Amino acid sequence: MILIKNGHVIDPLNDIDEVTDVLVDGSHIEKIGKDLPEYDYNTVDASGCIVTPGLVDHHAHIWPLANIGLPAASACFGAGVTTVVDAGSSGPATYHMYRPYLDLEKVRVKAYLNVCTTGLASLPTPEDIAPDHISEAKIMDCFDKYGDELLGLKIRTSKFIVKDMGFEPLKKTISIAEKLGVSIMVHSTDPAGEFSELVELLRPGDVLTHMYMNKGSNLVSDGKVLDAAFKARERGILFEAADAREHFGLDVAETAIAQGFLPDFIATDLTHLSMHLRPTSFNMAMQISKYTALGISLKDAIKMATVNPAKHMGMLDKIGSLTVGHPADIAVFRPVEKENVFGDRPFGNPDQRTVTGNLVYQNVLTIKDGEMVHRDVTF
């Protein structure tokens, strides 16, 4: 048994935002309440720390699903992440080869299936998403076999990928998703057409990722968030901030946040190329730190990294909260008053913009299914 005492618990689903204790019994959460007796438990004093549900990184690329994939446990557990979603690294011809490795991961992994038959295996050569090369039959077969693991379909709509095909590959993807009854995730950086046209094609439950990117047509025009974006949100389109190394623009983010257009999900889009890279995404703890520095409340940021993705994934009965009886996925963060630079491009990039924050949320303990999978040596 593990008793986490005196931490400031933030659990948006259960509307908990106070200093209290959390008791773990075996693999599940046993009790939450003030001044729980210690007995012979493994007691952790979380005074001055923030205690949250285990974070969900709704957008990363996991090895070996992608050759640029990150090692899931090392990237996730040290950032408070207990569930990670692979955002379309593999396609219907490659997913079956690599998915058995996911059973060896302690991190909980779900995935989107790339509509390109080979997924991202061709990188740095862009994936082939010509509509007549997207194999509906192979995609259907993959979902027949692995539908419990797959969340939906992923497509990238950048100009350098689609070239003169415009949004035709996206339309083909949507038609297949309709038949499967699943959502899609669409990579929006430097889109093939106007941003407003892109969001108008999407359906309720679809996810537009890289919402704050500033390449090509984007969320903001003439200093204002597009009306089409607000209308898309009203229709149920979900917007994800997954910034990677350069799918993010501080100019767009600052304008949108000031106008109240916040993410539904905060994620990373990490690969081994961007994992722990300053001053960009780095990891989920740093993403939380960045978005709170940009003006999003900590409680809202935690909701965007727990409840919201868990609900979209259909997994609120297992993840995203500290509900008694649910699996004990817990993260503890120490607020550290420290000047830190957040940037929208790597150092050395001439287009980089930075902002300086004064608070970083350092992950000091992560519990997955009742097991301490990361603990800072100072905690």
Structure description:
With 379 residues, the chain is α/β, with parallel strands linked by helices. It has two domains: 2-52 and 325-375, Urease, subunit C, domain 1; 55-312, Metal-dependent hydrolases (TIM Barrel). The chain has eleven helices and 18 strands. The protein has helices at 72-76, 95-98, 136-146, 159-162, 168-180, 195-201, 227-235, 250-258, 284-293, 298-304, 307-312; strands spanning 2-11, 16-25, 28-33, 42-45, 50-53, 55-60, 81-87, 108-114, 150-156, 183-187, 207-209, 220-221, 224-225, 238-242, 265-267, 330-343, 354-368, 371-375. Strands 1, 2, 3, 4, 5, 16, 17 and 18 form an eight-stranded mixed sheet that branches. The protein has an eight-stranded parallel sheet with strand order 6-7-8-9-10-11-14-15. The chain has a two-stranded antiparallel ribbon with strand order 12-13. A hairpin with a 4-residue loop joins β1 and β2. The longest helix has 13 residues, at 168-180. It is globular and about 65 Å long. It starts with a strand and ends with a strand. 53% of the residues are buried.
Core attributes:
379 residues; alpha/beta; Urease, subunit C, domain 1; TIM Barrel; 22% helix; globular
Structural class: alpha/beta
CATH topology title of the largest domain: TIM Barrel
Q: Tell how many strands the DSSP assignment holds.
A: 18
Helix content: 10-25%
Q: So, CATH architecture of the largest domain?
A: Alpha-Beta Barrel
Order of helices and strands: EEEEEEHEHEHEHHEHEEEHEHEHHHEEE
- As for the number of domains, it is 2
Mean pLDDT: 96
Apparent shape: globular
CATH class group of the largest domain: Alpha Beta
